[in-house]
Amino acid sequence: MRNRRSTASMLVAAALWAVCSTAPARAQQGGPPPAVLVQPAEMKPIADQSEFIGRVAAVDKVELRARVKGFLGPRKFADGDQVKKDQVLFTIEPETYQAAVDQKKAQRDAARAALANAEMQLKRAAELLRSNTGTQVTYDQRLSEQLQAKAQVEDADAQLRDAELQLSYTEIKSPIDGRVGRAAFSPGNLVSPDSGVLATVVSEHPIRVLFPVTQRELLEAKRTSGTDPAGIVVRLRLADGSVYQEKGKIDFIDVTVDAKTDGQIVRATFDNKNGVLTDGQTVRVIIEGEKVPTSVAVPQAAIAQDQSGAYLFVVNDKNVVEQKRVRTGVARDGLVAITSGLQAGERVIVQGQQRVRPGMTVNPSVAPPAASKK
């Protein structure tokens, strides 16, 4: 009796489990097709890019230093000012050096006077020698005195030029157009050639970016763009992720290869009128060809991966889901280039892939632009 009751209980439980397990399937079969968002595959230009770490370098960079000893006078600039070539930026007290110039001028004038007297004495000795009233010894002595006086004038001139040069060093000028940095010394400080850098002037427009490229990357770039770097577009990605608005041009590739990194330094030049780029700044260098190829493109969200590779789902003209095995290429700005496996115009599922499987009928809707980028 107990066996009959237990057997009946087991049959009832099995029947309940079968009803519960088949109820969802029946509801799924009898329910509406799942809704998905689709987007037609389009032909779009997608540039093949490479990125490198680069560093900004000024075309000209000058460290201003004192060339004579003295106390600094009033500063002629504010930190960060734009300065012109030959603009006076620092002054060193000139009085001592001006006094030296005046002294050398006096010594030069005295030497010139002595030379004039020696030349007159030589002229008289020559006249006396011609009239047989003078001697050859006297003439030779006067000639020697004249040559010594001439040499003293030349020495005085040289000393004067040196004193004037030392005086000119009391005005420290910018040798280039550019922007001056922070002053290292305040007025009133004693400076000398051993004091170090007083300030730095950099030329920021145009400006250069240096970045290392490996031999493999360089050979690939030459194969795709040729040996002429004019066909290469250079852009910069800044620290905040934004792309610098100006395009650059490659104007130099180093003539030697670094044996440690197997790379060569490449240099690109950019306009920098707005001063966004600063000497020493780190940037990401984006290299792409001037001619951008066009290829079938789909949103990156539509691509899935498994052990066999990349695939996506499309909806045919009967609203039936099909799985497509594809080969992907360059990915840019949320889009992926499809090199094979998909034709332009096919409706690709960009949202709702988790609810579908091949052969299932779906209710497709065209994805809005915002949804297609997810």
TrEMBL record:
It comes from the Bacteria. Residues 296-363 form the YknX-like C-terminal permuted SH3-like domain. Residues 61-193 form the Multidrug resistance protein MdtA-like barrel-sandwich hybrid domain. Pfam families: Beta-barrel_RND, BSH_RND, YknX_C. Residues 101-166 form a coiled coil. Residues 1-27 form the signal peptide. Keywords: Coiled coil, Signal. Residues 206-288 form the Multidrug resistance protein MdtA-like beta-barrel domain. InterPro entries: MdtA-like_b-barrel (IPR058626), MdtA-like_BSH (IPR058625), RND_pump_MFP (IPR006143), YknX-like_C (IPR058637). SUPFAM superfamilies: HlyD-like secretion proteins. NCBIfam families: RND_mfp. Belongs to the membrane fusion protein (MFP) (TC 8.A.1) family. This is Efflux RND transporter periplasmic adaptor subunit. It comes from Reyranella aquatilis.
